[in-house]
Amino acid sequence: xxxxxxxxxxxxxxxxxxxxxxxxxxxxxxxxxxxxxxxxxxxxxxxxxxxxxxxxxxxxxxxxxxxxxxxxxxxxxxxxxxxxxxxxxxxxxxxxxxxxxxxxxxxxxxxxxxxxxxxxxxxxxxxxxxxxxxxxxxxxxxxxxxxxxxxxxxxxxxxxxxxxxxxxxxxxxxxxxxxxxxxxxxxxxxxxxxxxxxxxxxxxxxxxxxxxxxxxxxxxxxxxxxxxxxxxxxxxxxxxxxxxxxxxxxxxxxxx
Length: 256
Hints:
It is a single chain. By secondary structure, the protein is mainly α. It has 14 helices and no strands.
């Protein structure tokens, strides 16, 4: 896989760089560059990110950071079985519970929401930091919705983190999930309130809460490109109409 000249491998996290020190220098540089490409592309081009992750995996499958990156690249491509295997491997290498929520979400992706709920109740959750615990709550609520348990999903999301007025990195997503669950349960007025709260917390546009709120308010979005296309087509249609009239006049003249 080609690596742009401006990618040096130095862009990776310091902790990952330390992990790669167990490799020969040249190999470590190659792996680092591929990991940088995974990070750069995973949101905008997950398929390409996956290919770079596979290269890194072939080069250094015994490095936990590589297994984790391969897991996230597979996860971004909805390859949940593969992602789960990579996350499990990374967890065995590090002993960390950090990947527990995304592993549970892989179980959801594989059609096993009950397993995700079992994981939400295990002791590993207590080892997570606050962000990880919120993520686990989001996964558990999603599993409840998978099972058609809308009221239980709403209750799962009700927490001190949801009630807090302080804005944390997870606040917008938590409020959004709560609003979406309320809407699915037919509680539109409450859903509108919480979509509004999600918009207030969503400073970097990580959700489409503003669009959802506008839809509830009856605002219709028109694609500007479609409007331009219609505007361009109108004169052409008029011109065609004029040509038809000219042809009719010409035919009348010939008959005369």
